[in-house]
Amino acid sequence: MASFLIAAQTLVAAPATGAARSLSPGWLRVEGELIAEVGEGDPPGAPDLRLEGGMLTPGLVDLQVNGFFGHDLADAGTAGWHTVAGRLPETGVTAFLPTFITAPLPALAEALRRTARLLPHLPPGARVLGVHLEGPFLSERRCGAHNPAHLTDPTPQALAPLLETGLVKLVTLAPERPGALAAVRTLAERGVLVSVGHSDATAEQVARAADAGARKVTHLFNAQSGVHHRRPGVAAQALADPRLTAGLILDLHHVAPVAARLAFAAAPGRIVLVTDAVSAAGMPPGRYELGGEPIELPAAGPPLRADGTIAGSALRLDAAVGNAIALGIDPAAAVDAATRLPADLIGRRDLGRIAPGAAADLTWLVPDGTGGLRARRTWVAGRQVWDAGSGNPENGNAQGPSPSTERTRP
Known about the structure:
InterPro entries: Amidohydro-rel (IPR006680), GlcNAc_6-P_deAcase (IPR003764), Metal-dep_hydrolase_composite (IPR011059), Metal_Hydrolase (IPR032466). Its EC number is 3.5.1.25. It holds the Pfam family Amidohydro_1. One of its GO terms (biological process) is N-acetylglucosamine catabolic process. By secondary structure, the chain is α/β, with parallel strands linked by helices. It has two domains: about 5-60 and about 350-405, Roll (Urease, subunit C, domain 1), CATH 2.30.40; about 60-345, Metal-dependent hydrolases (TIM Barrel). The protein is about 20% helix and about 25% strand. The chain has ten helices and 24 strands. Strands 8, 11, 12, 13, 14, 15, 16, 17 and 18 form a nine-stranded parallel sheet that branches. A five-stranded mixed sheet has the order 5-4-1-6-24, with no helix packed on it. Helix 5 (about 205-210) links the parallel strand 15 (about 195) and strand 16.
């Protein structure tokens, strides 16, 4: 069983329960696929790898990835899935929920069946934690980039074929649709996380959804009723209701800096960073697809539909963590929002933390020279799957890192 010791100038650790904290310096020892020990100060022996600068964090967990590197996961083939899962560690992501947006129900059911056939054959890379269905049970008034022609009510007949594979772990829906509260209860009883999104609901309707078992809100402030002081909507309830955790696309285009600060201040420990990345992410400006329809990635800003509607993002999750820190969010809280909190939301308490017994999913985030953060090295289950020094996502070996010292600007 492989064993190696890493010492870091800064290590963001999280216990089995409770918020993360920064250890400066800190160290950890990996045994096989798990973290065996974590400590503060100097390591108990000569480390196999010493990381100078940046911070060693749990592997990042993204609950909303429509696509990346030129591939839309809803209709990607084997090569597309291999590319996305194999290369997401370049962004620090070690686990994710591929996200399928609104489409006809038979097309979504087939996409789920195709995904179930593909998953056992993926190469080493980011873990696929299930599938996030963002639609088709959304509001026509807040459909955003979703095709309104395919929206429908979440009846038992509509849900049944989508749940057959067991892959669905998260469903975004509008609680004001007929039958939605019954659907929330059904999904929650089956262990599916329900998120309120693309919704024109009142705060009271969102509260009733939380009563029925909803526990999340999809991309806070975007495609939802807001925080009007006399007509509070989805965003207001998300910030006020301790039962709800809100996803936040922190590319500084979807949400203004002051609104992002408001979210972290109003709902500490209840904000999770997501990318909502689409096929254009990681690619040069040009034309791509989302849900079978064209989108355009400009030279600056998020991808757009032809009518100017924002269509997902080209955000990296490591960059989102850096953006949060640059806005004044405590670094440990920013890391928590992209690791422990999303992992806990979908019931994966073995992920998203640096603690004894947790999966050895790790990433080393370093300054990129512009004030942002980038993943320099990434490990999944104790195996190094990304090393920016080589540019090879399969660099390293299954036995962990070779003895060395890495330095970068603090």
